[in-house]
C-alpha cells in the first residue's frame, strides 16, 4: 500500500481499489494533531487503518514531531502497540 502525505488536504492517504483511506491531521504550534482516521466501508476489514497508523506513527518518530492524539482509533492503536507510547507526552 502506497501512503502519501497530502499536505494540501492535511492528511496521510492511501488509494486502494479506487477508494481513499486517510488520517486527517492539523499543525498547531509546531505540533501535529492526529484528528480522524477514515476507511471507506468497501475497504474495511483489511487492516488498512492499522497500516495507516503504523506509517504515520513511524513518520512522527522519524521526524521527531511533537504529537497530540485526538483520534479514538489512534489512541486505541497506541494502547495496543506499546512501542509507540513514547511518542505521547502529557
UniProtKB/TrEMBL annotation:
It comes from the Bacteria. The lineage of its organism: Bacteria, Pseudomonadati, Bacteroidota, Cytophagia, Cytophagales. PROSITE patterns: GNAT_YJDJ. Residues 4-89 form the N-acetyltransferase domain. It comes from Runella slithyformis (strain ATCC 29530 / DSM 19594 / LMG 11500 / NCIMB 11436 / LSU 4). Transmembrane segments: none annotated. SUPFAM superfamilies: Acyl-CoA N-acyltransferases (Nat) (SSF55729). Coiled coil: none annotated. This is Acetyltransferase.
Amino acid at each position: 500500500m502506497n501512503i502519501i502525505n497530502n499536505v494540501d488536504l492535511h492528511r496521510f492517504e492511501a488509494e486502494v481499489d479506487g477508494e481513499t483511506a486517510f488520517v486527517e491531521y492539523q499543525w498547531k504550534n509546531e505540533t501535529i494533531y492526529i484528528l480522524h482516521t477514515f476507511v471507506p466501508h468497501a475497504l474495511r476489514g483489511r487492516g488498512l487503518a492499522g497500516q495507516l497508523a503504523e506509517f504515520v506513527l513511524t513518520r512522527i518518530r522519524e521526524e521527531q514531531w511533537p504529537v497530540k492524539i485526538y483520534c479514538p482509533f489512534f489512541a486505541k492503536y497506541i494502547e495496543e502497540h506499546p512501542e509507540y507510547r513514547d511518542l505521547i507526552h502529557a
